[in-house]
Write a structure and sequence with these properties.
By secondary structure, the chain is mainly alpha-helical. Helix content is 43%, strand content 0%.
Length: 91
């Protein structure tokens, strides 16, 4: 078998290089390949590190009791009686 030799053609040669000798196809292949690898890594992290679930009923009841014990704060301003202003200075 012949070993691959570097291209020694003169710059003005009419022969073209094969596609794998140019850098841009490799860049175009690398961008989606990196995205696929990143997606696979994200999937791995999601599968190996699941969110914790409250299984113990006592913890759930404590959490529920604490949420119910907090006073509910009304953030709406108090309602005022509607006033008619016709611009004559009398309210």
């Amino acid at each position: 078998m012949n070993a691959a030799k570097p291209d020694r053609r003169p710059p003005g040669s009419s022969q073209t290089l094969p596609w794998y000798r140019y850098p841009w196809p490799w860049v175009a292949i690398a961008i989606p390949a990196i995205a696929v690898a990143g997606g696979m890594f994200t999937l791995y992290l999601a599968v190996t590190n699941p969110d914790p679930v409250i299984v113990d009923d006592q913890k759930y009841q404590d959490l529920r009791r604490n949420l119910q014990a907090q006073p509910q704060v009304d953030t709406a301003p108090p309602a005022k009686a509607a006033e008619r202003h016709d611009g004559d200075g009398e309210g």
